[in-house]
Prior knowledge:
alpha/beta, 6-stranded mixed β-sheet, 4-stranded antiparallel β-sheet, binds adenosine-5'-diphosphate, binds magnesium ion
Amino acid sequence: MLEVKNIEAGYGRSKVLYGVSFSVPNGGLTAVLGGNGSGKSTTLKALAGLVVPAAGEILLDGRRVDRVPAHEMAGRGLVLVPQGKEVFAGMSVEENILMGAYHRRSEKAQIRRDLDEVYGLFPRLVVRKKALAGLLSGGERQMLSIGRALLAKPSLLLLDEPSAALSPKVVGEIADIIRDLRQRGLSILLVEQNVSMALELADEIHVLREGRVAHSCVNGTNVDLASLQQFYLGASPMPAAA
Length: 242
Ligand SMILES: Nc1ncnc2c1ncn2[C@@H]1O[C@H](COP(=O)(O)OP(=O)(O)O)[C@@H](O)[C@H]1O
Ligand SMILES: [Mg+2]
């Protein structure tokens, strides 16, 4: 589904990514872990066309997309749920969700069905659909951000730290939703600092450190929470490669 080959990217003259490679198989869930400033969001921005890579290739369904502008990526099936759970605070929950369908706004009946599907996934949003989005809790804002992305009909969903700043209970709810989306056939790239969430959900895990993939492993083979956590926090040498 997605192949990222050796991408280098940054902002102006400051380089952030130094040759990042990984893939997301069709219907698979790949996680990228890394500490603050390791380049996780920059990687997602490069995939979404918000940052143009200086080198490397990004292939979506076998086709190069690394020069495709951001506003065309949703139409190609790649949709980013950005970090920060940002919502249009002065608009209702429903208006916020519908913003996700902006690029296909002529498909009114289909959008209605997709909206109902989002409400099916997030019953908490149903009761709050007329409320101002600015009044939502952090967990509800994360659900809203995912719901909005789903209205764009992605085949590949990029999630930037969906568990950040949420209580363990709400993190569990978000994890259940991600698992559910995956079971519905979505391919998912999950960027996280939450190691246990990645271990719970992902098939493959890549650890980003200072703009490089410092370690990659297939979940369920040679990984365990303690060693991954230690490695990712920089507290121990790299575990054996997968
Ligand atoms: N818009 C920007 N302009 C300049 N530098 C940026 C910008 N966004 C991020 N950076 C820098 O890029 C590096 C990686 O940031 P980022 O990809 O956001 O990391 P992460 O998401 O892993 O925390 C950091 O050093 C950060 O300061
Ligand atoms: Mg980030």
